[in-house]
Amino acid sequence: MTFKKIAAYSLVGLAALCTATLALPRHVSVERAATLDAAPEAIIALAASNSGYQTFNPYKKLDPNLQIDLFGPTSGVGSGFFFDSKDGTGSQTVAAISPNQVTYAVDLGAMGTPTQSIAAVPADGGTLVTWRIDSDLGFNPVFRVFGMFMDSMIGPTFELGLEKLAKAAA
Predict the structure, then answer these.
(1) pLDDT class for 82, splitting at 50, 70, 90?
(2) Is the confidence at residue 106, as pLDDT, over 90?
(3) Is residue 5's pLDDT more than 80?
(4) Contact 48, 102 (CB under 8 A)
(5) Residue 146 CB neighbour total at 10 angstroms
(6) Which of 31, 40, 46, 153 has the smallest number of CB atoms closer than 10 Å to its CB?
(7) The predicted structure's pLDDT at residue 87
(8) CA distance 27 to 17
(9) Cα 116–chain centre separation
């Protein structure tokens, strides 16, 4: 086989692989839930506060060198923080609050702008807390492949956060 044929077949194979990744889901969600022994109002109050969120921020345990800079009001829409960690930099801002949910706008720079939420509703034995992230991976084939592993990568972090939230809200 000539070099030209090898190069041509390689390019065709690479193009086919990139095209095939477009069949992977563009939108990815990761969610974890737990019933906590705390009032929904207490959970929402912590989640809606830039300093309150830090009491259960799971990334603080995962990265002891995590740098957090709070901004905006102490609590409510616009409350947030910048972060700089071993995994990257970005910001998280409270975008909306309802009686049972806090929604965050997350900016991860080149990695995207997912939406994250923490919902707290009364349930038997306490409060059902659901931590969720939704991300649009666009047309980037690398992001779409990465999306296949998001649940296994982010899910355990949310589980740790729910454990920490249970202690912080108690």
Answers:
(1) very high
(2) yes
(3) no
(4) yes
(5) 16
(6) 153
(7) 86
(8) 20
(9) 6
Task: Give the 3-state secondary structure of 51-86.
Answer: HHHHCCCCHHHHCCCCEEEEECCCECCCCEEEEEEC
Token code pair at residue 83: 């972060």
Residue of 69, 153, 166 lying closest to 118 (CA atoms):
166
Beta bridge partners of 68: 83
Instruction: State pLDDT tens for residues 11-68.
Output: 656 665 556 666 788 899 999 999 999 999 999 999 999 999 999 999 999 999 999 9
Q: In the numeric block, which tokens belong to residue 24?
A: 């992977």
Residues in the chain, total: 170
As given in the structure block, the two tokens for residue 162 are 């729910």
Rg of the chain on CA atoms, in Å = 20
Cα–Cα distance measured from residue 160 to residue 27, given in angstroms and rounded to the nearest whole number: 24
**CA dihedral over 156, 159, 164, 167, signed as positive or negative:** negative
